Amino acid sequence: MPKHTVAVLGAGKIGELVVAGLLRSGWPAENLLVTARRPERAAELTERYGVPVVDNTTAAERAGVLAIAVKPQDAAALLDQIGDRISADTLVVSLCAGLPTAFFATRLAEGTPVIRVMTNTPATVDQGMTAISAGPHATDDHLGIAEDMFKPLGSTVRVPEYQQDAVTALSGSGPAYFYLMVEALIDAGVQLGLPRTVARELVVQTAVGSAVMLRDSGEHPVKLREAVTSPAGTTAAALRELERHGVRSALLTAAEAARDRARQIAEAAR
Prior knowledge:
Blueprint: E1 6-9, H1 13-24, E2 32-35, H2 39-49, H3 56-62, E3 65-68, H4 75-82, E4 91-94, H5 101-105, E5 114-118, E6 128-134, H6 140-150, E7 154-158, H7 164-172, H8 174-191, H9 196-217, H10 221-228, H11 234-244, H12 247-269
Parallel strand pairs: 1-2, 1-3, 3-4, 4-5, 6-7
Antiparallel strand pairs: 5-6
Helix pairs in contact: 7-12, 8-9
């Protein structure tokens, strides 16, 4: 597939992640544009990646694909500024958490294809999880372009847009849940008498190994958990305490809170 000119509007953490990933995958630097609010940030991006930093209007006029990675609360102001400069054949890819494609459709020319994307920070090490949803005017070809952009950053999956808030709760926010659990386990190791460096190595490699095993074995997590759990053994004792303290329920409640917050963000941005 030919490489379209992609403009990343809003080069914060997620925007920079997309730029870096595209470059690592071999996307030509001359087919990339970036916008940044602060001049010092613009200079930093140009020095680091060798891509031109332009203003939002120039990006809208020159790019075939606009990846909008500004904060959700800033999206309306951005579209008020450049919406009439975006032609109806431009593909708009939204990385704005919580914002539906309808938010963009009402501010763009009739028929403009919009794709909603939720990726996550492990994309920094090419292990991201990206969910892609088509708006009403986006075709399979448009979805293919979005997949071309994000496959180099890890795995992609197509989902109906109504599932995107759940995706945000699970994979978008998900890395933070795992980091919190890793942090807690490292602290537990220290409490049990291990040096912090040893506890960290034990926990991190256990997390990596468990994730790879879960991914590559194809086994249900229950089966893998049961394989570790001997009757009346140490793991059984630990799992009993986790259940007693409601860890499973807490994770469900946390995911629901993240989903609800995504919906609130969308409501506030309208």
